[in-house]
C-alpha cells in the first residue's frame, strides 16, 4: 500500500491522525470547572458521537490518559507525570519557586507565577497557604491578560504584535474597574514599563488586587511574571510593589543563569 493510500485509510478508520484529533477533543472537554465528566457531558463538551467517545475514552484509560474510578471520567495520572517534563514547569518553576516562597513568607497572601499562552495567562505555580482565595484560578488555569497584573507585567515588555493580539481577542469587562479600550491599555502598559511592576486593582475580581513584575530569560526577553494577589486592603502597591520587583529581578537572574548554562555551546577543543 502506498503512503498516500495508507494515510487516507488512517483518517477514515481512525487509526492515526483522526484518532489523535478525537483524543484531543476529549481532553479539551476538561477544564478547571469541569474536572470530572459523566459520559453524556463528555459527549456534549467534546462534540463527538457517543459511540466514538465511549470507544476512544476506553483506549485512553488503558494508556493512562484518562481515569474512571466511578461513573465519571477525569484526567489520568500519566498526563500529570508527563506535565512535569514541560520546560515551563520543570525549568522555569524550579528556578523561580524559591523566590515565590520568599515572597509568600513576606506578603502572607497568595503568590503566583504565570506565562503568556496566546492571549491569556497560564498559571504555572501558586502558593496560597491556608488562606486560599477560591475566586482565583488554580495551577493550569487561565486568566485574561488585559485585566490581570501577571498579564500586564508581561505585555508591558512584549512586542506590538503580542499586545495587538490581546486587544483583538477582546478586552472583556470583568468588573466595573476593568480596562476595556486599547488606548487605556496602552497607557497602562507604558506606566507599568516605567514603574517596573503592574497593578491590577479589582479589575479581574471584585475586592481582589494584584501586584506583578516581569521575569526575563537569558536573552533579555520577557518570559513570565510573578505576583502577589489578595484582598485589596492587604495588597498595597506602594508597599508590595518594590518587593515584587526585587523578587522578579532575582528570579530572572536565577532563570537566566539556568537557561544560559543549558544553551551555551561547549567550546571546541583544538585539534591535536
From TrEMBL:
Pfam families noted in UniProt: HTH_IclR (PF09339), IclR_C (PF01614)
Protein name: IclR family transcriptional regulator
The HTH iclR-type domain, residue ranges: 17-77
Organism listed in the record: Amycolatopsis heterodermiae
Xref: Gene3D superfamilies: 3.30.450.40, Winged helix-like DNA-binding domain superfamily/Winged helix DNA-binding domain (1.10.10.10)
Keyword tags: DNA-binding, Transcription, Transcription regulation
Entries under PANTHER family matching the protein: HELIX-TURN-HELIX TRANSCRIPTIONAL REGULATOR, ICLR FAMILY, HTH-TYPE TRANSCRIPTIONAL REPRESSOR ALLR
Domain spans labelled IclR-ED: 78-257
Amino acid at each position: 500500500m502506498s503512503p498516500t493510500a495508507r494515510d487516507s485509510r488512517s483518517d477514515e478508520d481512525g487509526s492515526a491522525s483522526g484518532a489523535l484529533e478525537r483524543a484531543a477533543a476529549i481532553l479539551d472537554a476538561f477544564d478547571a470547572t469541569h474536572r470530572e465528566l459523566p459520559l453524556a457531558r463528555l459527549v456534549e463538551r467534546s462534540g463527538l458521537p457517543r459511540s466514538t467517545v465511549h470507544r476512544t475514552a476506553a483506549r485512553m484509560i488503558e494508556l493512562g490518559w484518562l481515569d474512571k474510578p466511578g461513573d465519571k471520567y477525569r484526567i489520568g495520572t500519566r498526563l500529570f507525570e508527563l506535565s512535569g517534563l514541560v520546560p515551563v514547569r520543570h525549568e522555569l518553576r524550579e528556578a523561580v519557586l524559591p523566590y515565590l516562597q520568599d515572597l509568600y513568607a513576606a506578603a502572607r497572601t497568595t503568590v503566583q507565577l504565570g506565562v503568556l499562552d496566546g492571549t491569556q495567562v497560564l498559571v504555572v505555580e501558586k502558593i496560597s497557604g491556608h488562606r486560599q482565595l477560591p475566586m482565583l484560578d488554580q495551577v493550569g488555569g487561565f486568566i485574561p491578560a488585559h485585566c490581570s497584573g501577571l498579564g500586564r507585567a508581561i505585555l508591558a515588555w512584549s512586542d506590538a504584535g503580542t499586545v495587538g493580539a490581546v486587544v483583538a481577542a477582546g478586552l472583556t469587562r470583568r468588573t466595573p474597574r476593568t480596562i476595556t479600550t486599547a488606548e487605556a491599555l496602552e497607557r497602562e502598559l507604558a506606566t507599568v514599563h516605567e514603574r517596573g511592576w503592574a497593578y491590577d486593582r479589582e479589575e479581574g475580581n471584585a475586592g481582589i488586587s494584584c501586584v506583578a513584575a516581569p521575569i526575563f530569560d537569558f536573552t533579555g526577553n520577557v518570559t513570565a511574571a510573578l505576583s502577589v494577589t489578595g484582598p485589596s486592603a492587604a495588597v498595597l502597591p506602594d508597599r508590595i510593589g518594590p518587593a515584587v520587583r526585587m523578587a522578579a529581578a532575582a528570579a530572572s537572574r536565577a532563570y537566566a543563569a539556568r537557561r544560559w548554562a543549558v544553551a551555551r555551546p561547549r567550546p571546541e577543543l583544538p585539534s591535536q
